[in-house]
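Same chain as my last thread, 320 residues:
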Amino acid sequence: MDQARAIGLEWAAAKAAEQAPVATLNGTVEPPANARVAVTALFGGVIEHSYVVEGAAVRKGQPLAIVRSPEILSLHSDLVRARARLGIARSTAQRLDQLSDAGVIAGARAEEARASLREAEADVAEKRRILALAGASGSDGGYRLLAPIAGRVTSVSATTGDRLDGGGAPFVIDAAGAYEVNAQLPERLAGRVHPGMQVRLGDVTGTVSSVGTTIDPETRSLLLKARMPAGPGVISGGTVTVTVLGPAPSGAVTVPASAVTPLNGADTVFVRTRDGVAIRRVQLGEGSADDMALVLSGLNPGDQVVKRGTSEIKALVLAQ
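reply #2:
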């Protein structure tokens, strides 16, 4: 093995493993049930301006579109009339209160006037709330569709010039940074995977939120759901491969996957010694994560293994 010293090698230390891959699953990325919001058109009308497109990031309260609606004009007229009635009711109540205090009229008439005043106030307040809820200016018949949450527009079913029916949802927004991975967990892993375990998708780490309790008779699997933050590769509707992580077996270590090579029918690593490099057979665990291999036996934490130059050393061994 003296010849190996002339080869430019790169080394890596074996590290005590805290977690180990339990399963590698295929799944789809979806927004959680409580993270998708439909933006509803409260009144029918025509979209005059549309400000966003599918995929656009929006902040809470950002205008999505301006809608012109005859219903808003009608509601504004109702508000004007209600304010006029309120003014009359207020004057009447004040006058009758004065007459009642002077003993000119019965107190019941003043009480009736006060009740009419309260009704008029409630009518004005109701119409104001409806216009405010719609983000309507009222006098020009326009109202705004606003983003109720911060996130990304995932659906646009109407654009400038399209007619809306009251109650329709021309925009759908998914909350920013909130995703869920749905995957099928094989029956053989039932009981080994449970809520709280980590799930890794590339460099993004999530958490198992639920594991189904009923096995699908066709796929012989359970439905696994995992919460996932935003990150590279986490796209709503995308198909992904995730790794479920659990506690590592006692004594297990991790090394770069490039450090492990088959030699004479066994998984092997090359370990640094005082005299150079030694051949060490190892037992690998199932699965891998982040290009790291899980070694169950054959190495100790701190052992230096070759992570680059493995093929050159292997060629020397086979030549000898």
